[in-house]
């Protein structure tokens, strides 16, 4: 909004020329989202605590300590993140850019699905929420619609292709199967973040790390000079997503202030589904879908642990892990929550560096 209204006045007021720079507006979006979280966070937490009788329902079959340490903590804190991301993006991004609206659309739509899931959990005092099939169907419908929208925005050579990391000229044309791939990326990323969100601060920091990486990727891919130098596939207009990712980092930092152990609020599905969907959408637009699997490798690891556990139990009647997702396995082994969280943050950082290496190693 500021870009659209103020940058055209740069001829009369040279100081407004700063709004042409994506880096300046990314920083502005990050700080704005952080401030919004700080302003509205305490009020939102009070409202959620008042409206939710007993906070988020705790799984009876989960780690025993959760019934003592996390009982009564309100959920739906993702509303705070969504508010911060949405307002900051609208304020600082170029609102004529379709990619911005596509990424923001996935984020808000998945947030709405997560809100419905959280609402049912809280009102019914049951950890089940929305039926899994219905939730997956709604996520898939949103992803398919947004993927088709993204394909129409992209230049023709990139519309249906998959870029391969470490290879500068490799583009695999998938045709309409690209819709399936992009849908799997968005839905998979969304649910992977949701599975990771089980301990105070565990999911939000890796999400911020991934968002920071993709802010850089979006900036480079959207800049014809840098993309040519690094031999990346140039996606005109995708640089504006750096502002969206900056808002995500700022909103995440603000949420972490209240989610740091002991958490005053949980993000719930409202936050987890939306944040994962946001990362998936940005990776599809920037043609770095496979890189997301590296940068978000922690989310992949958590998801694989659940799949392995379920398959092993159904086939053999035995469990590979003491409990899935993986972070609960280490809880059962006696690791302190803070130890698990910090070590998982370290893993997320290492994987982000691996993902960043794909920008140069080609």
Helix content: 55-70%
The SSE string, one letter per element, is HHHHHHEEHHHHHHHHH
From the helix content, strand content and strand pairing, which structural class follows? mainly alpha
Major sheet: order of its strands? Answer: 1-2
Number of helices: 15
Q: Biggest sheet, open or closed, and with what strands and sense?
A: 2 strands, antiparallel
Gyration radius (Cα, Å) is 20 Å
Number of domains: 1
Q: What is the count of β-strands?
A: 2
Distance linking N and C termini: 37 Å
> Shape from CA axes?
globular
Catalogue the unreliable spans.
Answer: none
Q: In percent terms, what proportion of residues is strand?
A: under 5%
Mean pLDDT: 91
Q: What is the multimeric organization of the chains shown?
A: single chain
Short overview:
This protein is an all-alpha fold and 362 residues long. The protein has 15 helices and two strands.
How would you describe this protein?
The protein has one domain. With 362 residues, the protein is mainly α. The radius of gyration is 20 Å and the shape is globular. It is built from 15 helices and two strands. The relative contact order is 0.16. The model has no long low-confidence stretch (mean pLDDT 91).
